[in-house]
Amino acid sequence: MLARRMRSLTGNVVDLVGRRIFPGRVEWADGRIGRIVPTPGRRYTRQIAPGFVDAHIHIESSLLPPSEFARLAVVHGTVATVSDPHEIANVLGAAGVRYMIEEARRSPLKFNFGAPSCVPATDRETAGAVLDAAAVGNLLALPEVRYLSEVMNYPGVLSGDAGLLAKIAAAKRRGKPVDGHAPGLRGAQAAAYAAAGISTDHECFTLAEARDKIAAGMKILIREGSAARNFAALAPLLRTHPQACMFCCDDLHPDLLLQRHLDEHVRRALAAGAERLDVLACASLNPIRHYGLAVGLLQPGDPADFLVFEGWKTLRVRRTYLDGELVARDGRSLLSRQAPKVTNRFRAKPRRPEDFRVPAGRGAVNVLEALDGQLITRWRKLKPRIEQGAAVADPNRDLLKIAVVNRYVPHAPVAVGFIRGFGLRAGALASSVAHDSHNIVAVGADDEALAAAVNLVIAHRGGLAAVGVGAARVLPLPIAGLMAEGEGRAVAAAYTEIDAAAKALGSPLAAPFMTLSFMALLVIPDLKLSDRGLFSGAQWAAVPLFAE
């Protein structure tokens, strides 16, 4: 078969491998770069650069399946992701990982999946599946699985947990990197964690912590997502340790994915004064090399994966190419929509307001305090409001109830606690996106509203719900209780509406549903709530509701 006609494009070529920028002509055919010819003396306003790679993202958090995620992401110059299918694996096990791989094949975007290392994340909650060392090894053998996903159980690494170390060893045997997840780990403990084979961390929230981990040999993934936003704290690393940094979003809801992806990281880094080539290397070259990705770096013979942008200060992506094909132009995706398959595991039954009642105890209650833009929480001890022998929510003090309802066991007891930071004056929010086991998590100003919001989620076998005075809204998530079936822009619009509904109830949080989804994530300190009750990530122990 004859090769297709060579195509070409002129502009300022950003050569990250040779660390230079020069006027030139990029030529490609059959999906690969043929040659790059310098054009001395020519002046161009557009730059041609390797495409962006998100070094750590949970596709499920976009509320979209892979092919629909891709349709939104390519607009921002994204050509590949390092994707952790940890969320769907906690619901469906290995079958969930294979679902993501199959759905990703329907898109030209280069998804690179990990084998989830911590399913469940802890033994202190109920998940939908268990992936032991043998199951993880089987996943690592798949060509689409490029690494071992974030090792969240860092106490298990430090204590030498045999099962966890077997998973790390399985990745090492196959020459596949191991991702980390160790918020707040410093000094000798960070060094011991890295020495076990952990190569990255995306949970640093202070510069000192990141420097400790770099000193231990780890790469730092600078995260800016919907809930966790650490770019400002870690941006100085781009001047001092750019070779040790990559960019990631981790969790990005569809409303923000419409507006930005890694292009925003790049804009902010350039505005902060970081060197141009260093910034673009963090967005592409560094993750491609670290994970050994089959993604082009704008070199002869490489896959023709690149973007065209204008303006260094404003950086507007004008075109995105994947294997030489134009997939986005001037803010419009050219990828066709692929209707996803639906798969789920959801056994929860409707609840009554009485299920959320808390009999009065003695003394203060242990209270979670949510922090805007952070996954960590503070631990407070506050005196509850008592009515008719029960501890109740007190919206006037921003002391609300939080509940976790088991989605896998129909009639399991409801875990109830108290929380600050959500600011609801009335009503309730509920979500089946509840890291990491994805039971139903809800926060509310009274028991009736809590039951109503939870029951909306149950009725749709997954979703986000907001219940207010005389009004109720739900965004169904029928795919594993994590993802929607609809077109990406429509899902983003629906999310924007329910987010506005949450804020109309009084929440001051930038992303109330994203923040809510992390209130059951036990491995992030300090106080969280699982379907089995309160838990301290710092003490790694259960905590009673009443402090006495």
Indicate the topology.
Layout: E1 7-15, E2 20-29, E3 32-38, E4 46-50, E5 52-57, H1 66-73, E6 78-83, H2 86-92, H3 94-104, E7 110-115, H4 133-140, E8 145-151, H5 154-159, H6 162-173, E9 178-180, H7 187-195, E10 200-201, H8 207-215, E11 219-223, H9 231-234, H10 237-240, E12 245-248, H11 254-259, H12 262-271, H13 276-291, E13 306-310, E14 316-322, E15 325-329, E16 332-333, E17 358-359, E18 365-370, E19 377-382, E20 385-387, E21 390-392, E22 400-405, E23 415-420, E24 428-431, E25 440-444, H14 447-459, E26 463-468, E27 471-476, H15 488-504, H16 512-517, E28 527-530, E29 533-536, E30 541-543
Helix pairs in contact: 2-3, 4-6, 7-8, 12-13
Commentary on this structure:
This protein has 16 helices and 30 strands. It is of the alpha/beta class and 548 residues long. The chain has an eight-stranded mixed beta sheet, covered by helices on one side. Strand 28 and strand 29 form a beta hairpin. Helix 2 packs across helix 3.
